[in-house]
Specification:
Length: 228
């Protein structure tokens, strides 16, 4: 709880594969790039996400999203979005990354001199600013501060999902701030749907990631992404 990094054994930083034996389960930490490639790409069909991971993250990011989908569901999504993440496309977003980093630097410079700085909060804010600008084409259509709070409220409950899943506790069992997280999730889904519908009706003046995702199509099946 104090420092997650301390739970990772030293061998994970020095060896390709580390075997951790714990009561009730064995874990392999795969750190060798070539083996990671086999697990995630070349032999992905042989590996499935564990129930703990699915239960912990599905409430926030969706069971069939690109992040959690598996098998055929994952493959068509992967084929559809792969062209978006070509090198030249990603390079086009570099000016946005730079501008958002400079924005955070200015926030630090204008802060009270000698006051403590929460680096984690600043990095979260900068990451969110990048998402708003690169994915949604700017913050004019949304309340950035409200979004940031809602995302934090959702992701702060993931450790509880992990613990409950590890101990096979029922999903309906309450945990701290569960109601707040559920309200935040509903707000995010509702407002993202509003933004997507508005963008379909009126495309942006310049191509951002949302436009590219809306236009993405699986070349084999012709399938496209749903709005939510």
């Amino acid at each position: 709880w104090r420092n997650y990094i301390e739970s990772i054994p030293r061998g994970a930083y020095e060896e390709g594969v580390v075997h951790i034996r714990r009561r009730g389960a064995d874990t392999l930490l795969v750190c060798e790039p070539d083996i990671i490639g086999e697990v995630l790409v070349e032999k992905a069909e042989n590996f499935e996400r564990d129930d703990v991971t699915r239960r912990a993250f599905a409430p926030t990011i969706g069971r069939n999203s690109l992040f959690l989908a598996e098998g055929a569901e994952w493959r068509w999504q992967r084929r559809a979005v792969a062209p978006i993440f070509r090198h030249d496309t990603l390079l086009s977003f570099v000016p946005i990354f730079t501008a958002m980093a400079e924005r955070q630097i200015e926030r630090w410079r204008s802060a009270e001199r000698g006051a403590p700085v929460d680096a984690a909060a600043a990095m979260t804010r900068t990451t969110f600013d990048i998402i708003v600008e690169a994915v949604l084409g700017g913050s004019e259509s949304l309340d950035a501060d409200r979004y940031s709070r809602a995302l934090t409220e959702c992701f702060d409950t993931i450790p509880w999902h992990l613990v409950y899943a590890l101990f096979a506790l029922p999903k309906w069992m309450p945990y701290p701030h569960r109601g707040r997280a559920m309200r935040a999730r509903k707000f995010l889904h509702r407002d993202v749907l509003r933004i997507v519908e508005a963008r379909r009706a009126t495309p942006a003046g310049h191509k951002d990631l949302l436009d590219l995702l809306l236009a993405a199509r699986d070349p084999e099946t012709g399938r496209t992404m749903s709005d939510l």
